[in-house]
Amino acid sequence: MKRTELAVQFTNKGEKLFGVLHLPSPSGKYPCVAMCHGFTGHKAEAHFLFTKAARKLAENGIAALRFDFRGSGDSEGTFERMTVGTEISDAGEAVKFIKNHKNIDKNSIGLIGLSMGGFVAAYLSGNIPGIKAVALWSAVGQYKKVFGKNLKVNFRAGKLKAMDIGGVVVGKGFFKAGIWYDGLNLVSINEFREPLLIVHSDNDKTVPFSDAELYYKTSGSGIKELRKIKGGGHTYGESGTEPEVIDYTAKWMKKHLAARL
């Protein structure tokens, strides 16, 4: 089977989003997974985690779309205007794009979300019809708690302001949208009834393992699994953990999306 990688683009709100579509072969129709990157991340992700995962999925007969949210990576827009709401909207357009692609089986669509992208995937799971499988990697479960700790923002006091974080500016809208969306991801995941895989490191210092446990407890999915990774940190960068996460997720998606080989 000859794998194919295509540079693709689609639009949202008049702005272009750029991505790479990985296909198991240039012909036929395949299940497809849309991959949602994390906060300040991009379509390749740290140590090329998403690139490697997309290629492994293609090896297992599953197409994968990794793309940059608006304001991130190569996509148009500015990071300062990015919010969890804009990323939810972008991911929704990504799902529409793959459903309409000639090589994708529109009835077999899945999601993978890393960190804040996991929050986005959890929200979409219960709000977009036809999502057949979801994998949450190091997913943010408690928005205000995680970002309040990491960005030192007092959400309760309403001290919302633009912040420079390592050279990128997070706008006021990011914090305001966070307050509105906080908890809606858990409502959405509770309404999701398809297979759910939750992967989280036991030494994640960015998003605590308790967020993974919260997703597992809250989920209404009939088929669900919480897989604890020993070590690896937030993006599974420690030795041995990256292949474990990628290989296990690819096999899991193959099983639940009924990949055509």
Short description:
With 261 residues, the protein is an alpha/beta fold. It has helices spanning 49-59, 84-99, 116-125, 143-151, 172-181, 184-191, 209-218, 241-257, and strands spanning 4-12, 15-23, 30-36, 63-67, 104-114, 131-137, 163-165, 168-170, 196-201, 224-229. The longest helix is centred in the last third of the chain and has 17 residues, at 241-257.
Briefly, what CATH class? Alpha Beta
Number of domains: 1
* Count of beta strands: 10
**CA-atom Rg in angstroms:** 17 Å
Average of pLDDT: 95
First-last Cα distance: 8 Å
Give the helix tally.
Answer: 8
Oligomer: single chain
> What global shape is seen?
globular
Write out the strand line-up for the largest beta sheet, numbering strands in chain order.
Answer: 1-2-4-3-5-6-9-10
Determine the CATH superfamily: Alpha/Beta hydrolase fold, catalytic domain
Gross CATH architecture: 3-Layer(aba) Sandwich
Beta-strand portion reads 25-35%
Secondary structure: helix percent: 25-40%
Instruction: Assign the structural class, choosing from mainly alpha, mainly beta, alpha/beta, alpha+beta, or little secondary structure.
Output: alpha/beta
CATH domain fold name: Rossmann fold
List keywords for this structure.
single chain, two-stranded antiparallel ribbon, 25% strand, Rossmann fold, alpha/beta, 8 helices
Structure description:
By secondary structure, the protein is α/β, with parallel strands linked by helices. It has a single domain (4-141, 184-257), classed as Rossmann fold (3-Layer(aba) Sandwich), CATH 3.40.50.1820. Helix content is 35%, strand content 25%. It is built from eight helices and ten strands. The chain has an eight-stranded mixed β-sheet, with helices on both faces. It has a two-stranded antiparallel sheet with strand order 7-8. The protein is globular, with a radius of gyration of 17 Å. The model has no long low-confidence stretch (mean pLDDT 95).
